């Protein structure tokens, strides 16, 4: 299959009139890489669905251009675009069999019957639904219904697959299984895919690239690992998992290492010429970037404030310094410390990321 890129150039989509106007999508530009899966991630109402529907052709943006494979598609209705959309609610026809549901788009195109049979059989096989041709949607599990919805889109041979929260009606375990299936399929077909979700774990686990949106704008673009480890803004850091923002001071600079102090102790990091001696910085530290310490020069004192046992880890809130609360994960835990316990903790230097202090707006 031909791999095609999708580009959004300065897309704006508004809803409402007069005083009540909402900019659901606000000057969004992005080139979606051909053959890759890009996740559109962000909190409820940030404009993910609206962006996707503009690409699919269900909404017309007031401004901007949408290009698929370099060709402008703004004027095309959904059925003339080389895109296929999988919706959250599956949108299957309840009175039709699996076969007829999957064949629907091909019948609309008036393909000859033998070709329809062959394409439907192939689509059902890819989605592991062979043998279920004669069932109706209500005779299928949620996961099977979602597969039918995907097969129905695939048989039309779209060049771009669009997913809008396709798994949110499934239980937690099936969701994890199905997201793996969707990713495998996308990689096997090497098809360009855009996947809307508000679930950060889902987005990180299946995508090549993530676009984090906030209030109609793109807040950050990057690989899941980069976005997790180097969130560009506090919004992104907070939205993608739990993060500690700690205040530190640059004690010394120099090659190859500099020293950063925090809570009256200091630790070393690779030198970074963005910072000067004496500068106050934000230390972005995920809960797994802090650990219990045996003591030593980088260890600081804390008191357990709360403990949540989560199986593979214990998540602690620890009071440090003048009462700041930091969140720390103890992975593979063999003990559970109670509230009030005195502990020593340290920062794992290569796991944190330093940022310039953001100016308050
Ligand atoms: N048809 C519409 N008419 C008016 N306002 C709309 C319409 N569709 C969306 N909006 C508004 O546009 C904004 C973006 O909505 P959108 O559905 O794109 O959000 P979303 O990121 O998909 O959220 P969710 O995660 O809840 O699905 C919201 O403020 C929403 O209320
Ligand atoms: Mg939505």
Structural commentary:
Helices cover 23% and strands 35% of the residues. Helix 2 packs across helix 3, helix 2 (98-108) runs parallel beside helix 4 (142-154) and helix 3 (113-126) crosses helix 4 (142-154). It is of the alpha+beta class and 361 residues long. The protein has 8 helices and 20 strands. It has a 6-stranded mixed sheet, sandwiched between helices. It has a 5-stranded antiparallel sheet with strand order 13-12-11-14-20, with no helix packed on it. Strands 15-19-16-17-18 form a 5-stranded antiparallel sheet, with no helix packed on it. It folds into 2 domains: 6-239, P-loop containing nucleotide triphosphate hydrolases (Rossmann fold); 244-249 and 278-356, Beta Barrel (OB fold (Dihydrolipoamide Acetyltransferase, E2P)). A hairpin with a 2-residue loop joins strand 12 (257-262) and strand 13. The structure holds adenosine-5'-triphosphate and magnesium ion. The site of magnesium ion (MG) has 2 residues, from helix 1.
């Amino acid at each position: 299959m031909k791999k095609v890129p999708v580009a959004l150039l300065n897309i704006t989509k508004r809803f409402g009139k007069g005083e009540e106007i909402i900019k659901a999508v606000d000057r969004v530009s992005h080139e979606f890489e051909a053959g890759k899966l890009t996740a559109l991630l962000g909190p409820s109402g940030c404009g993910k669905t609206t962006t996707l529907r503009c690409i699919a052709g269900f909404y017309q943006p007031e401004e901007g251009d949408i290009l698929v494979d370099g060709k402008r598609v703004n004027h095309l209705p959904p059925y003339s675009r080389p895109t296929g959309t999988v919706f959250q609610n599956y949108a299957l026809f309840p009175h039709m069999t699996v076969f007829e549901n999957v064949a629907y788009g091909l019948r609309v195109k008036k393909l000859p019957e033998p070709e329809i049979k062959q394409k439907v059989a192939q689509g059902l096989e890819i989605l592991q639904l062979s043998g279920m041709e004669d069932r109706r949607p209500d005779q299928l599990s949620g996961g099977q219904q979602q597969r039918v919805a995907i097969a129905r889109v695939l048989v039309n041979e779209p060049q771009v697959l669009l997913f809008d929260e396709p798994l949110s009606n499934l239980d937690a375990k099936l969701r994890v299984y199905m997201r793996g299936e969707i990713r495998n399929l996308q990689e096997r077909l090497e098809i360009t895919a855009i996947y809307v979700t508000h679930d950060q774990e889902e987005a990180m686990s299946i995508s090549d690239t993530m676009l984090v949106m906030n209030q109609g704008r793109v807040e950050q673009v990057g690989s899941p690992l980069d976005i997790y480890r180097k969130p560009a803004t506090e919004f992104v850091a907070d939205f993608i998992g739990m993060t500690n923002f700690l205040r530190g001071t640059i004690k010394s600079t120099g090659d190859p290492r500099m020293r950063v102090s925090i809570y009256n102790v200091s630790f070393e990091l690779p030198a970074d010429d963005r910072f000067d001696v004496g500068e106050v910085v934000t230390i972005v530290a995920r809960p797994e970037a802090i650990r219990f310490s045996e003591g030593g020069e980088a260890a600081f004192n804390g008191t357990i404030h709360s403990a949540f046992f989560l199986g593979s880890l214990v998540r602690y809130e620890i009071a440090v310094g003048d009462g700041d609360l930091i969140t720390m994960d103890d992975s593979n835990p063999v003990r559970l410390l109670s509230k009030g316990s005195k502990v020593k903790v340290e920062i794992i230097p290569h796991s944190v990321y330093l940022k310039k202090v953001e100016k308050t707006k």
